[in-house]
Amino acid sequence: MAMNAFGDLTNEKFRHMMHGLKIQKDKDGKVFKIPFFAEIIVPVDRRQTAGVSPGQCASGWAFSAAGALEGQMFQKTGKLVSLSEQNLLDCSRSQGNEGCRGGLMDYAFQHVRNNGGLDSEESDPYRAQDGSCEYTPEYSAANITGLVNIPQQGASLLVAGAAVGPVSAAVPASLDPFRVYKEGIYYDPNCSSEDLDHGTLVVGYGSQGEEPENQKYWIVKNSGGRDRGTQGYVLLAKDRDNHCGIATMARFPVV
């Protein structure tokens, strides 16, 4: 497997730059239930509706939350509008987030709901550093009415990914696949489903090769820019015992 430009960083430097998911007790939210009439659609690939932006501080949680909300707004309006991660970094501290020191997607969603909106990226662009809150209501491009948690068991993440769009998720700090991944399907039997502290976005799934049953993958978006992974994405092994904990913290906002 080819190594990307981040593979030679020390563990300490890489964790400081990219990680920052603050694991806390979940906020209240509905639990996703598979409709009895649900059909499993294969493949699903929403990379064209999930733009890749570079994250330079521990802001993966903000990119994950903004990406999930962008996807929901696209599903609702048919328009893809980039939302402000900087708004989330600077304005969601009262919910428990700590800007470039880390945060949680649930708290970001709660902030948008309590605040009554989130500005567009154009109105408050990403600056990769903490600052004062500059939310401007007239530039708000999205809002949230609720949060749905996706159970880890069964096909819930698969159905949610097909039915509702991009889903916020997380991977572990110790073996973040985005650090070394360049191409192919990422699988490491030692990748734990615990110690999750890097926010990501599941934007689809599929399979490849002559034996697709053994070559299934999730399409996962990172926040480190197009130089990481394949144009900012990684194909993470699917149906391999919740590999890297991708289904452990899956959720999406309701708009």
Automatic annotation (TrEMBL):
Primary localization class, coarse: membrane
Transmembrane regions: none
GO biological process: proteolysis
GO molecular function: cysteine-type endopeptidase activity
Class of this enzyme: hydrolase
Record EC number: 3.4.22.15
Reactions mediated catalytically: Specificity close to that of papain. As compared to cathepsin B, cathepsin L exhibits higher activity toward protein substrates, but has little activity on Z-Arg-Arg-NHMec, and no peptidyl-dipeptidase activity
Subcellular location: Apical cell membrane; Cytoplasmic vesicle, Secretory vesicle, Chromaffin granule; Secreted, Extracellular space
This protein's GO CC annotations: apical plasma membrane; chromaffin granule; extracellular region
Annotated Peptidase C1A papain C-terminal domain residues: 42-254
The keyword Disulfide bond appears for this protein: yes
Keyword hit for Hydrolase: yes
This protein's UniProt keywords: Cytoplasmic vesicle, Disulfide bond, Hydrolase, Protease, Thiol protease, Zinc
Membrane topology classification: Peripheral membrane protein
InterPro entries reported in the protein's UniProt record: Papain-like_cys_pep_sf (IPR038765), Peptidase_C1A (IPR013128), Peptidase_C1A_C (IPR000668), Peptidase_C1A_papain-like (IPR039417)
Subunit structure of this chain's protein: Dimer of a heavy and a light chain linked by disulfide bonds. Interacts with Long isoform of CD74/Ii chain; the interaction stabilizes the conformation of mature CTSL.
Similarity annotation: Belongs to the peptidase C1 family.
Protein name, per record: Procathepsin L
